[in-house]
Specification:
It contains 10 helices and 16 strands. The protein is globular and about 55 Å long. By secondary structure, the chain is an alpha+beta fold. The longest helix is centred in the middle third of the chain and has 24 residues, at 140-163. It has one domain: PPM-type phosphatase domain (Phosphatase 2c, domain 1, 4-Layer Sandwich). Strand 6 (171-180) and strand 7 (185-191) form a beta hairpin. It has helices at 3-8, 18-24, 59-65, 111-126, 129-136, 140-163, 217-226, 296-299, 304-316, 321-340; strands spanning 30-34, 49-52, 69-73, 87-95, 98-107, 171-180, 185-191, 195-199, 205-208, 228-235, 238-245, 251-253, 259-260, 274-279, 290-294, 347-353. It starts with a helix and ends in a 25-residue tail after the last strand.
Length: 378
């Protein structure tokens, strides 16, 4: 990144306000995210796609020409469920050849607000002057940690005045992927149980992230040492391990790291990401591979291997990436019906080529390119 570009980046200490993001996502940089309904949402609703900056083009067209496919679908808690779904994603071009894709899965009474804040604020902070300098100096892990820490602070600063006590018991998991034009390295960071897999052209799963869950002995030991308690909870015919404040019956969460969840934030359930870099140069058959990011609505009843083969089979049969993801969601929803009757979790999936696009083509700006097209992020 040249010196002039760095001077135009805001400091990570600056807030991710509407104004700062209007100024940030312009020129060759853009941010694509779901259009989240306000107040209510019908079950199984497939969300539209929105974009910054305002453009003459549809966001779907910008995604497609860069090889990215996404689908964001609300689940179904009951026949009368009208709550807003809590999964979101964002796909952004940060400039200087860097691409960032993420999935955030909210939980709790106000988890949709935490997840939506992540999808807007985390790319902003990862593209700050400080984080960008670290990335340029091969400090990917440090850049991720800095941006995640700032995003967690932002969530408290931005949402606590609005949500109050709800933020004590609401939060979100997150999985991120950084790719660079011309590089064979894939850089991932995550908290919680959203997951990424690397898929070869024949559907073989070549690599995967491991969830932060209380059945992971190291994760359980860490949060117990900090003041949490891990207990077995019966759910139907299954027994699940969940995290509680020691001696209490809350928050009963199924993961050991997250954004938000302030009631256990000082007890080890923090937003410090695990970071991994996958070198695809040493992996045979990955040249035409894909990375899939997904919330746990996909993984609950489908294994990584099943998902990898499902995607490869669909692509081999000539289906587009968008069609393959739509079919994958239908299959996941059918598995939920088989196991959980009327209940189905929210499902979000992002599928991108392992190789970052070589020639980024930003959206065609509108005559009013600095506007949000009526969208307020706060």
């Amino acid at each position: 990144m040249n010196a002039d570009t760095k001077r135009r980046l805001s400091s990570i200490t600056s807030g991710a306000t509407d104004r700062s993001m209007r100024e940030h996502w312009r020129g060759d940089k853009f941010l694509i995210y779901p259009a989240v309904p306000s107040g209510s949402e019908v079950p199984k609703h497939v969300r539209d796609v929105a974009m910054l900056p305002r453009s003459k083009e549809k966001a779907e067209e910008v995604l497609k020409r860069h090889g990215t496919a996404v689908i964001n679908v609300k689940g179904k808690k009951s026949s009368r469920d009208s709550s807003v779904g809590q999964d979101v994603y964002s796909c952004s071009y940060l400039g200087s050849g860097w691409w960032l894709d993420l999935v955030a899965d909210g939980h709790g009474t106000a988890g949709e607000h935490v997840a939506e804040r992540i999808c807007h604020a985390l790319p902003h902070y990862l593209n700050s002057a400080e984080s960008s300098s670290l990335i340029d100096d091969d400090g990917i892990e440090e850049a991720y940690e800095l941006a995640f820490e700032r995003c967690q602070t932002d969530i408290v600063e931005t949402l606590l005045p609005v949500l109050g006590i709800k933020l004590q018991f609401s939060g979100s998991t997150c999985i991120c992927l950084l790719r660079k034009q011309g590089s064979k390295m894939l850089h991932l960071a995550w908290v919680g149980d959203s997951k990424a897999i690397l898929i070869s052209a024949d559907g073989t799963v070549l690599n995967r992230t491991l969830e932060h869950k209380p059945d992971n002995a190291a994760e359980a030991e860490r949060v117990i040492r900090m003041g949490c308690e891990v207990k077995d909870v019966k759910h139907g015919d299954n027994v699940l391990k969940k995290v509680f404040v020691e001696g209490q019956e809350y928050p009963a969460i199924s993961f050991t790291r997250s954004f938000g969840d302030q009631c256990v934030k000082d007890m080890g359930v923090d937003a410090m990401p695990e970071v991994a870099s996958w070198n695809t140069a040493s992996t045979r058959g990955v040249g035409d591979g894909y990375v899939l990011l997904a919330s746990d609505g996909i993984w609950e009843f489908m294994s990584e291997e099943e998902v990898g083969l499902f995607i490869a089979d669909g692509l081999k049969r000539g289906h587009s990436s968008e069609e393959v993801l739509a079919d994958l969601v239908k299959e996941a929803q059918q598995r939920w019906r088989t196991h959980e009757d009327d209940y189905c979790d929210d499902i979000t999936v992002v599928l991108v080529p392992m190789k970052a696009p070589s020639c980024p083509q930003p959206p065609v700006p509108s005559e009013c390119c600095e506007c949000f097209a009526g969208c307020s992020l706060q």
